[in-house]
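Exercise (ungraded).
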Amino acid sequence: MSLPNTTHEPARELPIAAEYDVLVCGGGPAGIAAALAAARGGARTGLLELHGCLGGVWTAGLLSWIIDHENKQGIMPEILSEVQKRGGRSSGADGRPTSAYDAEIMKWTLEEMVSATGVHLHLMTRLCSTKKDASGRLTHAIVESKSGRQAIAAKVFIDATGDGDLGALAGCGFEVGHPETGLTQPMTLMALVTGLEAKSIRQFFNYDAASGGTFEPKERLNDLLTSLGTPPSYDKPTLFWIRDDLFAFMANHEYGVRADDAAGITQATVHARAEVHRLVRTLAGAGGVWKGLRLVATGSQLGVREGRRLHGLYQVGLSDILEGARHPDAVCRGRFMIDIHAFGTGKTRGLEKAPGKTRPYDIPARALVARDVDGLLFAGRCISGDFFAHASYRVTGNAVALGEGAGNIAAACYHTGQTPRDFVTQQYEQHFTQT
Ligand SMILES: Cc1cc2nc3c(=O)[nH]c(=O)nc-3n(C[C@H](O)[C@H](O)[C@H](O)COP(=O)(O)OP(=O)(O)OC[C@H]3O[C@@H](n4cnc5c(N)ncnc54)[C@H](O)[C@@H]3O)c2cc1C
């Protein structure tokens, strides 16, 4: 007898756990900035996050390195300054703080910043469904936590889940992967290592890419691991210097896994963790300058480079990146290269060829407004863009700026009573009537 492949979940009444002006789903770099901006704009703001800490890939993912933050104003430099005050940043060879940070101090800093701003925090709470009214406007997020299944009501919602869970659950159209193959960039499990003396392994890391970093240290590390009989699945293995007794280690690629495939992610996580242990043991076994190397921690979250790209009122495209687009409703200026990690189907285990060079470009507010559902904004890597544009704007300096932009729009909607769609469209149209 074959088992049926569906089952029926009976309808039930849900308690409404909270009511907010703005609810931000996902507490990564984008979600934190969105919540801070919305709360500072006067809106009663909730922030829900499935992990037991804030920061997303910064903390649960142990990323440890922030790209494209240097030209940002507002919340991005504020976070860096708060992390620095708590001793979570170090100065590189030129005496200036690098792009690295201590993930544990980042967790603490973000919790303090969010609490000081009056954001209502729901940790270890997963968004799992949504409810809309008869007009199609989003009204409730349905969540699961140790308190059971509950609803949270809000006037405006922000999807900062990275993978676009809220948008997809609410019925937004979206795209995933390369336009021709559907393949997505590989996932990576980050790690922290200790027991190395920085000056003895100087040829294997850059203090900061911004201060003249090159690929050579990664190539040396790849050659070393290969000569020891353990070629890493990412052939640009990287040591990020955090401080003299702490490095982040990025050396593995999990190919062909989609962000919405729970079984695939489970398998990839187990596989990646085993590879990280193997690589660290191999290096430590080589002795010499590597003798004391030890693994401190691996991420509790496999790093996802690419999930859903939700449909908004504007789609950031490759031409925006190559031509250095300017938009009257810009919320972020991106500058990072088009960084496509190998798909795993060709010869490279490193990076795919980029289709051109980035010229600093604007991301307009319209790319943050849901096209298919009312009352919904996007922030971070799930905003509306094509595959190649995403490969540039996906980094966390931009995620914070996009979150701040979405939070500001949400707060403005709270004050005007408008939907994000009406508010942003009106602002955009006003620009053309005034100029
Ligand atoms: C291995 C790797 C290396 C990278 N290297 C760099 C780098 O060096 N520098 C850099 O700046 N960027 C780097 N990036 C890119 C960058 O990390 C991401 O694009 C960035 O995380 C985007 O931020 P975000 O806030 O949109 O998403 P995320 O950081 O993914 O945050 C999303 C948050 O939402 C939560 N969430 C998800 N679904 C739900 C749900 N259903 N319910 C409740 N909560 C939910 C998650 O737990 C998470 O906290 C790298 C990415 C990876 C994977």
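Further reading is listed at the end of the chapter. For now, observe: Residues 262-285 form the longest helix (24 residues). The chain has a mean pLDDT of 95.
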